[in-house]
Amino acid sequence: MSKDKILVTGGAGYIGSHTIIDLLENNYEVISIDNYVNSSPSVMDLIKTVTGKTITNYNIDLTEYQKVEGVFAEHQDLKGVIHFAALKAVGESVEKPLEYFDNNIKSLLHIMKAMHRHKIENLIFSSSCTVYGIPDKYPVNESTPIKPAASPYGRTKQIGEMIIEDSIRKVGKAILLRYFNPAGAHSSTEIGELPINKAANLVPAITETAAGIRDQLTVFGDDYDTRDGSCLRDYIHIMDLARAHTLAMEYLIAGKQDQKLDVYNLGNGTGLTVLEVIHAFENVNQVKLNYKIGPRREGDVPAIYADSTKAITQLGWEPIYDIDEIVRTAWEWEKKRRKL
Question: What one-character DSSP code corresponds to residue 315?
């Protein structure tokens, strides 16, 4: 018998699809909303390949409230919502700030309006370490001061957190999950990151270069105050991240959260530079990458990594995969989907 029914927005996206798999593997019933603007309908088939279960996805735009309301009206038994759906490329957000504000904020407002109307109690919000801006020290914990975001994308996450904080006082409870850099693929390598456009994140850019989809990989800057001058990030395996969402929802449904709103960082707790990730990929997969050093990219934070002690202590979460497994599964997935 299935557990509670959960709505996942952005369910065909990278994090959303892997979270759906984890929810299904933990016997939840799941429905999805995704208009495939940054994803593919084929992802739903990949979820079925991994889990053996068919997911109902509603191909609607969350900026159209009446369509959102229609989904909630059809599923009166929803127990919670995990809200991923958003435009998410840092660089693109610098070029198209108004598009990012319109889509990301309006989508969240419509989800929360429908939740309040139908008295859905539990919300998990896909936030980001970008809300910390450029921190003064590392690692970053949940008490680290929020500074001006380095990109419009980060600003939409800051505003989203504020909206939830103010709105959740009336109905339900929420958890904000601030995660760092998800990467890798499901252990089966039947599903992984599937960028519709040119990959903006480091690991899929690496695998595209190795696969010959890109002629060359660009490292944006080598003059930062890090071990080797390239940006430093905290890379977390996608299935570790997915697991945290399931645990957070279980925590809310079980009534374990005392306050209306809480926040958790999700990362491996160690920082790796861009060049270190490149070298890890080369060493693990025995593939030489063609890369060059380019200028800094606007919107990039020099360095950031997580203190995830709170999630480990309160949610019972623990990341189990390291960078070697991240780059191994990412490359196996890339080869499989490209038929290399």
Answer: I
